[in-house]
């Protein structure tokens, strides 16, 4: 797909002049109140605290996925996981992210960010053929949660699953990416959906279009000041390494509403650290310029020309966000490829078990991001079919069997075998497919140069799938 250009139209020049000193140009907000007739005391129309709360639910869900003891506490762990997936009537403790050393997080409970939020109500519920069982996206996540609760430490060595990674990476797509590109930056940009001439809902201090755009930004998970930071800075905030960079207002703590960098933005920054891409810059610029455009309408409905420009910004965000997910999938396919070599080279059982554990972790990240890619606005068609075939329902396990489906009780079935070398070849084919389909540029862990040699060796030794 060609990159959508960010054109400064006459309307955008007017926007910049209108907003003026109301905010620093490199930050997402504050933006003035434009709702006609508003008589409250609010002075900033930006609001996306609900999305920040859902990122916290996601981070907490990932952390909780490792709390199982192998079965004895399964019911307790599953109930806890489902409370962070479905939300709870009362408040919930923030399991992650929490303070680390001098990197102090301001909030300790979910309601300090936003009340009444959940993941399940904002989760992709279309078909998810990448997972066995003919389930919807929401059903897949519930299935993962159930098995995570029954596992020991979130790890299933027999089937090759790292539940925290699978749950986390899939949710980054099925909640955040899906809601942004297939809802708030899609149908809610139409003229008759959340019009800019009315408040988003009765009594609110932001218009329909302002809040729709803000919510899309919130799902991306960047800090409000991320555009003014380097890729390394944004990456380090997510790693809780640099309080001074994160603490934009200098109050000594990091506000999860506006100063933290969550998953999707973290992976954009991670790719950009290569120096080959500008995903964070392009996405943040499009979000800020789009919000400036909406603000420039001063509470009136957007003209057709303004909505066309706004949709161009949305397309830029969607294209770059999709590439971020493709880059992550590419990276972890390369990790899995390398891990298989390390397993084969391990000197003893202890080293082999350690290498296999890393392999399962990386496979969970690979699979989760491949599923995230399939949760967006675009029907990936042939690309998704081949991606799912190459990666499979599970990785090659220690006895060279792979998950082929689930039984009537939802338990995994492994009745196929695949050689390690053949699965390595699959990983290179995954990378080749992603390059062809998405034109990605960071290409971390690129192993495609080894494709020809591996194909030749397989042709020589006959390594292939066995039944």
Shape: globular
Please state how the strands of the largest beta sheet are arranged side by side: 1-2
Largest sheet: 2 strands, antiparallel
Percentage of helical residues? 40-55%
Quaternary organization: single chain
Tell how many strands the DSSP assignment holds.
6
Mean pLDDT metric: 93
Report on this model:
The chain has 467 residues and is mostly helical. The chain is 50% helix and 3% strand. The protein contains 15 helices and 6 strands. The protein has helices spanning 10-19, 49-64, 74-86, 137-150, 163-184, 208-220, 231-238, 243-246, 263-272, 279-296, 304-345, 349-373, 382-391, 420-438, 451-461, and strands spanning 155-156, 161-162, 401-402, 405-406, 412-413, 416-417. The protein has a two-stranded antiparallel ribbon. A hairpin with a 4-residue loop joins strand 1 and strand 2. Helix 9 crosses helix 11. The longest helix has 42 residues, at 304-345. The two termini are 40 Å apart.
């Amino acid at each position: 797909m060609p990159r959508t250009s960010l054109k400064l139209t006459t309307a955008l020049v007017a926007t910049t002049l209108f907003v003026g000193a109301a905010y620093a140009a490199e930050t997402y907000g504050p933006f003035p109140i434009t709702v006609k007739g508003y008589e409250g005391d609010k002075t900033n129309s930006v609001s996306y605290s609900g999305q920040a709360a859902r990122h916290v639910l996601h981070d907490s869900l990932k952390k909780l996925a490792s709390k199982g003891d192998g079965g004895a506490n399964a019911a307790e762990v599953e109930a806890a996981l489902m409370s962070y997936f479905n939300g709870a009537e009362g408040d919930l403790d923030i399991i992650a992210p929490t303070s680390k050393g001098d990197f102090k997080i301001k909030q300790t409970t979910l309601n300090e960010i936003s009340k009444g939020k959940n993941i399940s109500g904002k989760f992709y519920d279309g078909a998810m053929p990448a997972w066995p069982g003919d389930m919807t996206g929401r059903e897949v996540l519930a299935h993962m949660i159930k098995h995570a609760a029954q596992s020991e430490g979130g790890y299933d060595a027999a089937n090759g699953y790292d539940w925290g990674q699978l749950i986390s990476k899939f949710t980054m797509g099925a909640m955040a990416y899906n809601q942004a590109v297939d809802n708030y930056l899609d149908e809610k940009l139409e003229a008759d959906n959340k019009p800019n001439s009315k408040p988003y809902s009765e009594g609110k201090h932001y218009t329909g279009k302002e809040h729709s755009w803000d919510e899309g930004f919130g799902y991306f998970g960047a800090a409000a000041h991320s555009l003014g930071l380097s890729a390394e800075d944004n990456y380090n905030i997510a790693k809780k390494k640099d309080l001074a960079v994160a603490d934009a207002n200098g109050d000594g703590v990091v506000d999860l509403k506006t100063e933290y960098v969550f998953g999707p933005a973290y992976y954009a920054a991670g790719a950009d650290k290569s120096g080959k891409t500008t995903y964070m810059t392009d996405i943040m610029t499009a979000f800020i310029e789009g919000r400036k455009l909406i603000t420039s309408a001063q509470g009136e409905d957007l003209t057709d020309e303004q909505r066309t420009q706004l949709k161009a910004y949305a397309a830029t965000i969607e294209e770059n966000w999709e590439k971020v997910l493709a880059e992550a999938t590419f990276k972890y396919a390369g990790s899995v490829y390398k891990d298989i070599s390390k397993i084969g080279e391990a000197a003893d059982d202890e080293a082999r078990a350690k290498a296999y554990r890393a392999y399962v972790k990386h496979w969970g990240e690979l699979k989760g991001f491949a599923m995230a890619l399939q949760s967006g606005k675009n029907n990936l068609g042939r690309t998704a079919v081949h991606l799912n075939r190459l990666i499979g329902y599970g990785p090659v396990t220690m006895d060279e069997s792979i998950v082929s489906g689930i039984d009537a009780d939802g338990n995994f079935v492994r009745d196929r075998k695949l050689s390690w070398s053949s699965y390595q070849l699959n990983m290179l084919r995954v990378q080749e497919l992603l390059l062809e389909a998405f034109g990605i540029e960071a290409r971390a862990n690129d192993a495609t140069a080894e494709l020809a040699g591996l194909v030749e060796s397989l042709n020589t030794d006959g390594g292939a799938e066995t039944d």
